[in-house]
Each structure stands twice: as structure tokens, then as C-alpha cells.
Write a structure and sequence with these properties.
alpha+beta; Aminopeptidase; seven-stranded mixed beta sheet; globular
């Protein structure tokens, strides 16, 4: 069984390397901004000393943005546990909402967030054109051959 721990030390080094591999990180381009994920706090799902998932977030102006979520072992509750840890942190910090951005090609994530209880707040049409100006290595085509064009904003109101 896995446990949830704060991101630090060896977990941070592993996550930074994983983001470099999975996301061409450490920088991510979201809603017209370029973020350095190495500065984001987060949680790691750990099993037998190995990271099997992680989540990073930012809290500003009483809002909590999930900036990165990756489960390395799907369908065992890792993503759910990580989001629950962030929701609890956001509640402790008196946040009004937890929100995130994903791209239109990420159909597994879109389904997951909706099942979890997130609501679709906005669709930012052709937002990936601006993102590619900040980070040219973002591919044109993603999962299942779907062109990566738009950002989907999901949110969960708190309190």
C-alpha cells in the first residue's frame, strides 16, 4: 500500500527528473505563463520507497492551482489520494477553490477530473498557440492522435 508524503529530498530529485522526461520540464506553459515546477510544493505517493505518483500545486490569492499531476501506477487510487491531499491543504489555507488546466487531447485526465467532482469552468480556444511561443517543444499532436490546441480549465469550489 502506498502512502502520501511531502515532496522533498530524493523525492524532489526523482520528480524533477520525471517532469523533465514526461513534460519536457522543468518549465511548463499554462494559461500564458511559464512555470518552473522545481519551485512548486507538492506531495508524492510512495510505495516501498519508490515514487509512484506526484502532484505539485501553487496557492495564490486564496486559490489553489494544481500545476502537475502524474500517476505512474494508474487505477489504484494514486491520483485520487494526491488530489485529496491538495484539497485538504487548500482547505487549511482557506482557499476558495482548487483548479487546474489540462489540454484537449488528454481525454483520460478529462474523464478522471469530472468523475472526481471537478467542473469544467472554461475552454481556452487555441491557447496552445501562445503556450508554444513560451515552450516550443510542446507537440502539435497528443494522445490518440488528437491535435493539441485548447486548454480546459476545471475547478472545484471549496467551503
Amino acid at each position: 500500500m502506498f502512502r502520501i508524503e511531502l515532496v522533498s529530498g530524493n523525492y524532489r530529485r526523482f520528480i524533477d527528473a520525471q517532469i523533465a522526461e514526461s513534460w519536457s520540464g522543468p518549465f511548463i506553459a499554462v494559461h500564458g505563463d511559464l512555470y518552473d515546477t522545481r519551485t512548486h510544493p507538492g506531495y508524492a505517493a510512495v510505495e516501498d520507497g519508490a515514487v509512484i505518483g506526484y502532484i505539485l500545486y501553487l496557492i495564490t490569492n486564496h486559490e489553489c492551482e494544481i500545476t502537475v499531476l502524474e500517476s505512474l501506477h494508474e487505477r489504484i487510487g494514486v491520483g485520487r489520494a494526491l488530489i485529496n491531499a491538495v484539497i485538504q491543504k487548500a482547505k487549511n489555507e482557506d482557499c476558495r477553490r482548487v483548479w487546474l488546466i489540462t489540454t484537449n487531447d488528454n481525454t483520460l485526465a478529462i474523464r478522471f477530473y469530472q468523475r472526481f467532482g471537478f467542473e469544467l469552468k472554461a475552454v481556452h480556444i487555441n491557447a496552445m498557440e501562445q503556450a508554444r511561443q513560451l515552450k516550443p517543444q510542446i507537440p502539435l499532436v497528443g494522445d490518440d492522435g488528437i491535435p493539441i490546441k485548447h486548454e480546459f480549465e476545471f475547478e472545484m469550489a471549496l467551503g
